[in-house]
Write a structure and sequence with these properties.
By secondary structure, the chain is of the alpha+beta class. It has nine helices and twelve strands. Strand 7 and strand 8 form a beta hairpin. It starts with a helix and ends with a helix.
Length: about 260
Amino acid sequence: MDSIIDSLKILGLSHYEAKAYISLTKLVSAKADEISEITKIPRTKVYYVLKELDKKGFIKIDHGTRPLTYSIIPPFNAYNEKKEELIKKLNYSEEKLNEIYNNQMNETQAPIWLINSTKNIINKEIELIKKSKKSIYLKIGLLFENEDEYLIKTLKNLSDEIQIKIIANSEANINNKRINIYETFKNAKISNLDIIKGKIPYNKLLIVDGKETLSTLIRVNENNEIIPSTIIGLLNKYEEISKNYSNIFINDFYRIKNSNNY
């Protein structure tokens, strides 16, 4: 019974309202004094409790009887409606809190941040690319679903003066579908893009202006399939470390390019 009361509280009922609603699942229809007697809710409070249940859509009041009759709205109907409302509120609050969090993260001077979920990682990649002034360096050993489209669209909108260099794997497995990363970006007609093939592990590295880096790290199973729960983004704002990453990238880029005679 306590677990049912707790679930009803999640849907917005008070303790007394939950008890009254539970009692009406047995009675189906009843007067206020009957409900008070069964639930032990004081008569001075039971009318207010039942009025609130009516407002919240869990019962209906028959005003044509004296005393008033209170009838239950079937749990299936009441629960479904309230669950939909709750999910909408949760989705809305999650979206708004993420906006606040991401905005605050941009303004905070903390040098390293962890980013969870593919959606947040892709959003952060796009945000970093859009604010670049000099250079975008990318090592791409994996892509998430539709990520290539987002990245290409964002890169195309950059100024031609921004240097874009990519080291990309030939292939990646996205939701059991093979995609040629190198060919996809090479054929995207990004005027200021210089791209070469490389052998990148299952990770991704974005370096922006030699000042910030975003690393995407994952683990794969024995079939080389991504384990979703292991996906993590590591945003690094240590400029000195980012410079080192940038220098290593350039060295790797030209070493591979010269050895392959691009």
